[in-house]
Amino acid sequence: MDIFLASLISSVLLAAIPLVLAGMGELITEKSGVLNLGVEGMMLMGAVSSFAVTLWTGSAWLGVLTGVLVGMLAAFLFAFLVVRLLTNQVATGLALTILTTGLSALLGIKFVGQSVEGFSAVSIPVLSEIPVVGEFFKQSILAYVSIALVVFLAWWLYHTHSGLLLRAVGESPHSAHAIGFNVVKVRYAATVLGGALSGLAGAFIALVQFKAWQEGITGGVGWIAVALVVFATWHPSRLIFGALLFGLMRSMGFAVQAANASVQELLERSSAVTQSVLGFLTNSQVLNALPYIATVVILCWISRDWQKIKLNAPASLGQIYND
Question: What residue intervals traverse the membrane (predicted)?
Fold first, then answer.
């Protein structure tokens, strides 16, 4: 059981970190009043570019930097279209995802089947030796940096003048403009920052989770991240909790496979009915479907109180602002 729990904790963190990175990026973007549905595509571009640069140069950090810059570039294109040219945000976000999904697949054809060293786990002395819980302290440097970044951004959003300005623009861009703030620049900055975090999330998946490239490597994490923002009602602490919850669901399959011997032993000692139930619950296809089923169920549950969602959502979310 200890082996299973240790494996589960490690898998949960690996699955939750890209979720919370992409989710935080989308939350910051939406707090400015911009709805970007291109998260999945930006993650894919960040993943393929970071993997390619790491493979060519041997430097994982250079790969991460490239992934972040590519995510920012994709977000800047999106921001130019919706903030400056005033295109429909939903349609533009979907178009961005379609474009970048296909482009990442095209660019990544030559990298399929190859692998990189990526980031290895770094154990924190003493803390990593604690039974079971010590798995939290056996992560990669990029994981520690990502966690610190998310915590900092959560603090920044509610405890700094610039964070207040961002939220003010999302609530009432015309009022913010009336008192002298540049709404267009704030929305550009928020959208590009969201793209940077999405690119970082893609780089994390390519260089920490898989250390390889395959088409569609993000596996829908970007879409779950968008849903996660709604689940969290646009609040960072609930976003982190939601990411851990979804990470748990996404990692169940990996944990069960890692503890396969223990599961098989449990099945052998169980009754026929229990074996059938456990066999179904531990089926890899069922486990892989869990996060998507949970996304639909949770969104349906949240949607029962649409007034509460409207109260928590930025008032100008998705609305065109013309200065």
Answer: 60-83, 90-109, 141-158, 188-210, 216-234, 239-260, 280-302
* Longest CA–CA separation in the chain, Å: 71
CA 165 and chain centroid, separation: 24
Closest CA to 227 of 297, 318, 171: 297
The whole model's pTM is what?
0.88
183-204 and 141-159 helices, crossing angle to 10°: 160
d(CA 80, CA 192): 10
Of 204, 189, 155, 185, nearest in space to 20 by CA = 204
Chain Cα centroid distance, residue 223: 9
The amino acid at residue 186 is V
Question: How far is the C-alpha of 177 from the C-alpha of 166, rounded, in Å?
Answer: 12
DSSP state of 122: E
Q: Give the count of beta carbons closer than 10 Å to the beta carbon of residue 205.
A: 29
Positive or negative CA dihedral for 216, 217, 218, 220?
A: positive
CA 64 to CA 125: how far, in whole Å?
Answer: 26
- 180: exposed, middle or buried (C-beta count within 10 Å: 0-12, 13-18, 19+)? exposed
Domains of the chain: 2-312 (1.10.3470)
pLDDT by position in tens, the chain (length 323): 555 666 677 778 888 999 999 999 999 999 999 999 999 999 999 999 999 999 999 999 999 999 999 999 999 999 999 999 999 999 999 999 999 999 999 999 999 989 999 898 888 887 777 776 777 788 899 999 999 999 999 999 999 999 999 999 999 999 999 999 999 999 999 999 999 999 999 999 999 999 999 999 998 899 999 989 988 889 999 999 888 888 887 776 655 555 555 555 555 565 555 545 445 555 656 666 766 777 677 767 766 666 666 778 899 999 988 87
R_g of the chain, CA atoms, integer Å: 21
